[in-house]
Amino acid sequence: MAQTKLVKCTINGEYTETMVDVRASLTDMLRNDFRLTSVKKGCEVGECGACNVIIDGECYNSCIYLAVWADGKNIRTLESLLGPNGELSDIQQAFIDEAAVQCGFCTPGFIMTAVEILESGRRYTRDELKKLLSGHLCRCTGYENIINAVEKTMNKRLSEREGE
Amino acid sequence: MGIIGQSVTRVDAPDKVTGRAKYTDDLADKSALIAKVLHSTIAHGYVKSIDTSEAERIKGVVKIVTCFDVPDIPFPTAGHPWSTDVHHQDIADRLLLNRHVRYYGDDVAAVVARDEVSAMQAIRAIKVEYEELPFVLDPIEAMRDGAPQIHEGFDHNILAHTSYEDGNYAEAVKEPGLIVIDKWYDTPTVQHCHIENHICYAYEEAGKINVVSSTQIPHIVRRIVGQALGRDWGSVRIVKPYIGGGFGNKQDALYEPLCAYLSTVLGGRLVKLDMSREETFASNRVRHAIRYHIVSHVRADGTFVAGKLEAYSNQGAYASHGHSICAKGAGAFRQLYRYRGACKGDAYTVYTNIAAGGAMRGYGIPQMMFALESHVDDIARRLNIPPLRLRQMNLMEVGYKDNFSKNENYFDSFNQCIKKGMEYIDYDRKLEEFSHDTGDIRRGIGMAVFWYNTAVWPISLESSSCRMVLNQDGSVQLQLAETEIGQGADTAFSQMAAEELGIPLKKVHIISAQDTDVTPFGTGAYASRQTYVGGFAVQQTARIMKERILSYAHELTRMTVHNLDIEDGYIININNSRRLMSLAELATTALYSLEHSRHITAESTYQVKSNAYSFGCSFAEVEVDIPLCKVKLVNMINVHDCGRLINPALAVAQVHGGMSMAIGYGLSEQLLYDKKTGRPLNNNLLDYKLSTTMDHPHLEAQFVENYEPTSAYGTKALGEPPATSGAPAIRNAVLNATGVEIDTAPLTPHVLFERFREEGLI
Questions:
Q1: Interface predicted TM-score (ipTM)
Q2: B279 touches chain A (CB under 8 A)
Q3: For residue B739, how many other CB atoms are within 10 A of its CB?
């Protein structure tokens, strides 16, 4: 009989308690127990970045993060980005506007890394952005428009902040 | 001012940026039983026995099926339209599970369990006893006398051999003074690496086996599942939701037949079969590695006189798409350049003991372009003629017509594309400037052109069906069998329908998913066909729909249909542009009218009997670190003439992705096999070097828009061509930088080290 353990954590702003198989990955827990299906499985060994989520403010490949480690943590997935009335966040809109989405399978992971980058409040050069995004694989876009979407959103947020 | 030609945002993007878009695994019920496949650990041999006793005792295991249990029904897997002519049918050389295993990773047994862990434990507990046979990994070795026989009935393992001779080669080479360039070129085995691995699930319901699958070709997979299971095709239903890329790997029946079979032996219970990344590399499809021998006889002034091609394509263990791929490249060889005297080709596709070669973006053309465009630069170098001038002297002429496909080179696309590329990359200046580089780091600039065509006519059927349904609010449901696989097909079709019907884009609701029970027939995403072929179906169906709408408008307005039109969602009188009523008003009245109720719909099939050339080029600029044997790509542009652009922003995005694939093909990607065991050595995304953000310079995509005269909307192939000319452009830039001809892709440091040593550079 598989061992299970109670995991108490906050997921997308909501406190949750769930019993998980001690062998389960965080990807499995988020997808299967909470049906947060934006968390994608592309390799399950931390190579492709499709399962990326933010844990306590930092990005992790959730496929190589045990579900039991999530105990006490604050986890955010793509599903958390919509505004109170379901409106898209600026980075989601930028992915649409810049044609940075094709098959869409790598998109949630990329957007969550973009969120981490944007929330740092720092200005990065294009080369720095490329390095920060390099943990994600995409076969459709050649990354060009993804980098554009992140860079433009960063510039917009920073200029809005300076304008305040 | 139409909607076609505008860079509207993708219709599927809001769902994809919010996580609402559902892919196969997102739709599978949590109750699904989990299937796992046991793959062979030898490259060639027979399964003598399988002991499942220990595996069966593992808690959670529901069923184990081995190669001794499955029906003996060989089936084909290629995602081609079926041919009713037995001679044109794909080779049926697969079984659901195999006693005769033909590559390391072949399918031997399958476990179905309540959860993944139990399934994997059971896979590891199964004991297989093999009788090992010698194996062969290389197509030329596989053709030798005494090579291991991989399939019965294929002499020297040759799946197919085709040849042609335009003119008389033996005579043409006798012209005095010809210079002979005789070279071999090698291309690698690579994999598609769509980020969503292939996955499917199956269950029985209403007398049917239902399969939800990550596929590009639902209607074709339906036929193949029927064939493999020996069932009536109508008793198979395939559903295709959003998929996480395909690139040709999913233009094949992969594990749908096995998954469907497993459900049928479990009373129709829900069974899910999800490939791991390692299995995707080892046991799906790969791009054929093709080895080329090209001999050109040319005059000192650069005129091509006689050319000879030999192509040896590594088919791997099963036929899949087979010879079509090698043959397509060989066909391009005889057309792209004008060998005035004669052009001769021999193309072989040969079984070996590696993973089966299948369709992959470009379908034989990335291979052929690497060899041929490298060869043209090699000729230029020997003759001391600028490579661009040599191309312009010998490329296909405007007005050329292929008598088989009836394709015609209507425009001066090559020169127009080359001109744009040269201007963007500042070709002439850099060519001159880089020629002075002498140090450890040398810069180079290179280019390559490509040949492509659109869709598969006349080799195979080309037809597409479309259905439109008018809703009460004046919006239209649009349904096609052509699939959205990330390229933006749903958006392009929506734009066409909106423009043709005269309604705003937001009033078009495309049904993205295909369900073979309800989706009209069509063959799916491959051959860069959908925008071209589907365009005819959308246009024809929209015109039928419009006629029906206007005929109902005639009843309501008493005006002749000839004075009526639809504009921006309103019925108008064309003589004074007056809006007579909204389409919503008309649709509601039509549906609920007590006098004459009508549900306005249209459906039609268009069979396409044309094809269209799609041409263009790549330019690349590199810095080569000679002591480190490393190539840095610093600038790249692709220029395409794919006719009129339906959606320029999405066209650019499509080109970016193809360029990215070409960069990997040229510089880093190769699936390696252990020569001692036949085992794949790097079947994971850590050791297989897929390009990342760090490996790309800015990718520039530009277009020449010559309206394609055979096309419904002036468009032609763009899906695959972007992946075809980038690798040889990079290779030619390295040649320009170093003077060293590298004839093996990818240009890894290992290859460069050997060659630089041979040439005395290091």
A1: 0.98
A2: no
A3: 12
